[in-house]
Amino acid sequence: MKKMNKIKLGMIGGGIGAFIGDAHRRASGICNDYELLGGVL
Hints:
Distance between the termini: 37 Å
Strand order of the largest sheet: 1-2
Strand content: 25-35%
Oligomer: single chain
Number of strands: 2
Helix content: 25-40%
Largest sheet: 2 strands, parallel
Low-confidence stretches: none
């Protein structure tokens, strides 16, 4: 079975106090299919 590459993820928003950015960041960490490469928070 071929190993799948991680999806490259960039985030805009989600700074301190922002709920949705934190939720997306945590969810991408749980499934471990994404690699956060950059962001503007």
